[in-house]
Amino acid sequence: MAYISLDQVVKRYQMGEVTITAADHISFDIDKGEFVIIVGPSGAGKTTVLNILGGMDACDEGTITVDGSPVSSYSSRQLTTYRRYDIGFVFQFYNLVQNLTALENVELAAQICKDPLDAGDVLRHVGLGDRLNNFPAQLSGGEQQRVAIARALAKNPKLLLCDEPTGALDYVTGKSILKLLQDTCRQQGMTVIVITHNTAIAPMADKVIHVKNGRVDRIDRNPSPTPVEEIEW
Ligand SMILES: Nc1ncnc2c1ncn2[C@@H]1O[C@H](COP(=O)(O)OP(=O)(O)OP(=O)(O)O)[C@@H](O)[C@H]1O
């Protein structure tokens, strides 16, 4: 059985009289340590899938299994534990606490985990060894995203979920963030899922899941993924 498995997952949103089927029988598998990209146009259902996989929302039909556990039949209490211990999140706009330093932001997240990594060590790993005591406002966008990635990794999660992690960054900085995610996947065996609009970066992934109108349109596998520094777009 795959490390992560979605089988016929359906999610509907009721908007007054209208029902929107944001995820329409979505199925895919992900292996441990895989780098996966989910691509598709705006409104395709990418964030919906990520929210369901991350335990922030429940699906209406289908099953989700992560590391042998039936996430789709979890109670809200079990989902809280799952989000807290098993999932690292990285968002487009970093979502750092502005009045805490880089180190304190990472320590804060580490406090609610079972087996956290050392906050300073993780910040050094993401290249911020000399910025530990800076506040978010004193850091560039790329540096703030590195803090957010460190915060997610310090939890030592089973799965790193990234929703448009380079959406607010320029080309070079965005590329360096993708390199950090790719290196983390390869060097630590971390399972990483990245949502993006940018189909050009597809060659860097082990697996590319194309989503369209709430459905999986196609799944591509790259037997030998390209290092992101060799991709131009
Ligand atoms: N909480 C919600 N309530 C109602 N409709 C929603 C909700 N969340 C998403 N939707 C709808 O579900 C569909 C899929 O949205 P989703 O955010 O998953 O797409 P997306 O592929 O992530 O798009 P984008 O790239 O623009 O973020 C859209 O039609 C959206 O309007």
Automatic annotation (TrEMBL):
CDD domains: ABC_MJ0796_LolCDE_FtsE. Keywords: ATP-binding, Nucleotide-binding, Transport. Residues 4-231 form the ABC transporter domain. InterPro entries: AAA+_ATPase, ABC_transporter-like_ATP-bd, ABC_transporter-like_CS, MacB-like_ATP-bd, P-loop_NTPase. PROSITE patterns: ABC_TRANSPORTER_1, ABC_TRANSPORTER_2. The keyword Zinc-finger does not apply. One of its GO terms (molecular function) is ATP binding. It comes from the Bacteria. The keyword Iron does not apply. Belongs to the ABC transporter superfamily. This is ABC transporter ATP-binding protein. It comes from Oscillibacter valericigenes. The lineage of its organism: Bacteria, Bacillati, Bacillota, Clostridia, Eubacteriales.
